[in-house]
Amino acid sequence: MKSNHIMNLIFIIFVYLVTLSSSKSIVKTLPGFDGDLPFTLETGYIGLGDDNEVQFFYYFVESSRDPVNDPFLLYLTGGPGTSGLYPFLYQIGPLSINVYASSWTNITLETNPYSWAKTANVLFLDLPAGVGFSYATTYEASISSDSVLAVHSYEFLKKWLLEHPWFLNNPLYVTGISYMGILVPLVTLEVYEGNERGDEPHLNIKGSAIVSPLTDKFSDFNSRFEFAHRVALISDEIYESTKEACSGNYVYNDPSNTLCANALQRVDECTSGINMANILDPLCDVVNPDPTCREAAEKYLKYWANNKKVQKALYVREGTVEMFEKTNETIHYDLKKNDTIVYSYDIFSSIIYHQQLLTKNCQVLILSGDHDMNFPYVGTEKWIRSLNLPVASPWNPWLVNDQVAGYRVTYTKDRYSLLYATVKGAGHSIPLYKPEETWVILDQWLASTSNSLSDS
User: Where does the secretion signal sit in this chain (predicted)?
Assistant: First the structure.
């Protein structure tokens, strides 16, 4: 096993030595899509480290409206450990899988009418190394953490924009979903502080947007209990007795507190059969999911992205990745998961970074699906309130096609603003459940913030 690992490393090093530290290519066609792509797609690698030992693979889509002037979004996928190919094909990218015309091994792609690339330039990324098509040329370079990932994201962004200087003046937003709620505020802060230090290039940072964020690894998981009661998954009696027995701590409870343990067991009996991503959705068969099941993405992407014709079309360096996986489970985080041999979950809460951004000319968008039990709106609203921001526009419904799409509230303090919105009927991957609504509020928010003056 060790000898095989060494041989693989030797081969990767060889491939690395005969390629540049970065490379980029325009993708004209993709297997599964009929004809030329009706948008500009660039893929490539950016090397980081003294010897470019970390090679990050990216997928960049130009805005179909006005790429010269439209906002520029760096989009960080959740997990950590989930490939940027997942949101590219399944959530906010220019293409989506037509599940009704596809089989596992013969996928049909179609255009996504609610792609974020309709209104912005979007840069998707496989990170850290070992995720998607990104790789490392040394074992040491394959080891990462939350804090390292934040620095790498900033360094990647600077290097990418140096190679694409015509996008330096576009309004820049750091965006992401789920676990990236831990990292997006820190990456955003890195950009602001880099500008203040005089780092080159100077980035036209405007703010950040986060979908269904994990922000605090206690309060967000802890809020699942309150959410379960609000949506009638547990009774008033179970709620009150558990609340009393556990003293408000439903995650890191004292093992010797048998009353709390017994109460939480009752809660688990009521909620264990619920789809956490959207409590209204049925649970999917993990081994053999129905093709229309949202969890089927894992299987579709596995077959499609491991197709040699697909990898050739995407300009993936041959031999650098043995097997594409939608998510690297070694890296992927779950409640109470300890550090692994390749990844350290060293940031417990990102609230402190949100607090530091309050002094910046920063515009923030936070979206929560009101049926998401992974990181419920309950916990999100709690940490937003802890920022003690003045309300500029009170809680009100927002509309799409003359129908209530959710509710929103705006906070402002000096040059900082935060728009928090719920999306009615949406689960964790909000654009997957409510694509039009998500695109509408993003488009409106970008239009209202992208012309603000940046910090010098």
Answer: 1-23
Task: Average the pLDDT over 359-382 and give the result.
Answer: 98
Average pLDDT, integer, range 401-411: 98
Query: Which pLDDT score, from 0 to 100, does residue 219 have?
Result: 96
Band of residue 456 on the pLDDT scale cut at 50, 70, 90: very low
User: How far is Cα 55 from Cα 44, in angstroms, rounded to an integer?
Assistant: 10
| Residue 372 annotated among the catalytic residues of the structure | yes
Distance, in Å, from the CA atom of 225 to the CA atom of 242, rounded to the nearest integer, reads: 9
Number of H helices, E strands in the chain: 13, 16
Residue 102: active-site member: no
Q: What single DSSP character describes residue 444?
A: H
Q: Choosing from 372, 417, 429, 450, which is the catalytic residue?
A: 372
The CA dihedral of 182, 187, 188, 194, to the nearest 10 degrees, is 150
User: Which structure tokens are listed for 34?
Assistant: 């009929």
**CB-side exposure of 410: number of CA atoms within 13 Å?**
11
Round to whole Å and give the CA distance between 281 and 274: 8
Is the pLDDT reported for residue 16 higher than 60? no
Query: Where are the chain's structural domains?
Result: 26-219+344-452, 234-271
283 close to 275: Cβ distance less than 8 angstroms:
yes
Contacts of residues 286-289 at CB distance under 8 Å and 24 or more positions apart, as own/partner, are none
Active site residue 178: yes
Q: Which two structure tokens, joined as six digits, stand for 398?
A: 């927002």
Phi, psi of 239 (to 5 degrees): -60, -50
Cα 145 from Cα 414, distance rounded (Å): 33
Write out pLDDT tens, residues 94-112. 999 998 898 888 899 999 9
The region, left, alpha or beta by phi > 0 then psi within -120 to 50, assigned to residue 377 is alpha
d(CA 67, CA 303): 32
**E strands within 316-455?**
343-344, 363-369, 391-400, 403-413, 416-423
**Per annotation, catalytic residue among 64, 428, 429, 450:** 428
* CATH code linked to domain 26-219+344-452: 3.40.50.1820
419 within 8 A of 365, measured Cβ to Cβ: yes
**Mean pLDDT, to the nearest integer, of 255-264?**
94
What predicted TM-score, i.e. pTM, was given to this entire model?
A: 0.93
Burial of 23 (C-beta count, 10 Å sphere; 0-12/13-18/19+): middle
Distance, C-alpha 233 to centroid of its chain? 28
